[in-house]
Design brief:
The protein has about 120 residues and is mainly beta. Helices cover about 0% and strands about 60% of the residues. The chain is built from no helices and eleven strands. The protein has strands at about 1-5, 10-15, 20-25, 30-40, 45-50, 55-60, 65-70, 75-80, 90-100, 105-110, 115-120. Strands 2, 4, 5, 6, 9, 10 and 11 form a seven-stranded mixed β-sheet that branches. A four-stranded antiparallel β-sheet has the order 1-3-8-7, with no helix packed on it. It is elongated. It starts with a strand and ends with a strand.
Length: about 120
């Protein structure tokens, strides 16, 4: 009912930058929070950043001051600007959105397909 398309991952040297995008489409009445998670090999998926409808943001301590989450409500899109990247930021990054569906008017959550970010030292 809701499709998420991620883009922007890739290979970058330490200290470099990448910008991830995640566009939502489908049976969307309203999007509540939008967020980014990541999962490194052998580790659990962890929250990176989240942004509410009103623009309130929350970040993992490990990315504070380096990553910025933002959203364009007109485009149903969330972004993650990643600066000063470190090798330990290497992971598959997933977007997640909490959506009020037009069909049920209930909140459901959806995951993107994931995009690989690799930071070389």
């Amino acid at each position: 009912q809701v499709q998420l398309v991620e883009s922007g991952g890739g290979l970058v040297q330490a200290g470099g930058s990448l910008r991830l995008s995640c566009a939502a489409s489908g049976s969307i009445f309203k999007i509540n929070a939008m967020g980014w998670y990541r999962q490194a090999p052998g580790k659990q998926r962890e929250l990176v950043a989240v942004i509410t409808t009103g623009g309130t943001t929350n970040y993992a301590d490990s990315v504070k001051g380096r990553f910025t989450i933002s959203r364009d409500n007109a485009k149903n899109t969330v972004y993650l600007q990643m600066n000063s990247l470190k090798p330990e930021d290497t992971a598959v990054y997933y977007c997640k959105v909490w959506v009020v569906l037009t069909t049920t008017l209930q909140v459901d959550d959806y995951w993107g397909q994931g995009t690989q970010v690799t930071v070389s030292s």
